[in-house]
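pls ignore typos typing on phone
flavin mononucleotide + seq
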Amino acid sequence: MNGLCSLLGVEAPIVLAPFGPWEEVELAAAVCNAGGLGSLGTALRSTDELRQQWRRLRELTDRPFAVNHTGRPLNQEAFDATLEARPAAISFHMGIPADLIAQAHDQGISWIQAVGDVDAADMALEAGADVLIAQGTESGGNAGWISTLVLVPAVVDLAGTTPVVAAGGIADGRGMAAALALGAQGVSLGTRFLATTEMTIDQAWKDRIVAAHARDAVKVANADRALPPFNLAQVGAPFAPRALRTPLVDQLEQDPDSLDPPALAARVRAGVLAGGGHDLLPFTGQSAELIHDIVSAAEVVSRLMTECAAALHQAETVLPSGASIAPMGQT
Ligand SMILES: Cc1cc2nc3c(=O)[nH]c(=O)nc-3n(C[C@H](O)[C@H](O)[C@H](O)COP(=O)(O)O)c2cc1C
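k done
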């Protein structure tokens, strides 16, 4: 039995990424009902709005889900409300707060910690995380600088019996199969799930994902001028978001001093909370290269499972005859 699935109470080792302030209740419900782990972001939203989201999700599914928090910044009131609401798991990014992990455990909530390098993985294990998300630089949204192909096995080597989930650059069953071959027990997908029928982002953003090449999803330079500040200690090189190009992304790169950080952060916040933001910072990962259609979340989960099995089988056929049955190191 997959340890990740039994820990989280899900059938498919597939996690829907949290999307910060972007509304994803219907999408999370669809992923939960398809057997995966749905997630909800919390960024920029009031605690009342979040409580309503959690209530709606519980009306749409009786399956387990995760609520996400980050250190950009940590909203203590929303975190306390999350503890009261008792989701199956809290996922956390950009900060490794051992005290909050202990509080989650006191409520019987599992802790899923995103890490971008092995130092962070070490700290997360020490702090008591139940699951590590090894998040590669290919990811949409805030991420570090190490590729998924390098990061996942490095984190797996450290993690021992703690399940590792691979994130960043995975959009189909081939990527999922690769992640499992690297030792991950599951995958977390963001960009692929943005381009689904249930996701609430503007159609123009979904269409751009379908049309985009990997090189169109760039690391946003000087993003600190546009995003809320961190209020927890960070590990390693500072995270930077990956997004499709917009006039704002270009201006941040070419002429950052022309942008006033408080005014810009307020503009981004207002745009996102009004249901937009795709014209400013449309967070998107390199896996846009692999996304060619907008389908339902259930279709994404079903394709991932079918294609993953086929890709693992296909990989075995590439090995010289007999190699697949000899345990590693004993040939
Ligand atoms: C629009 C968007 C918003 C995101 N917001 C968050 C967030 O609030 N918290 C978080 O932990 N990760 C966030 N992420 C990162 C995802 O959790 C995930 O690691 C990433 O999308 C995986 O890479 P992929 O996009 O290549 O699938 C976001 C990603 C996107 C695309």
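The first strand starts at residue 14 and ends at 16. The chain has 13 helices and eleven strands. more later
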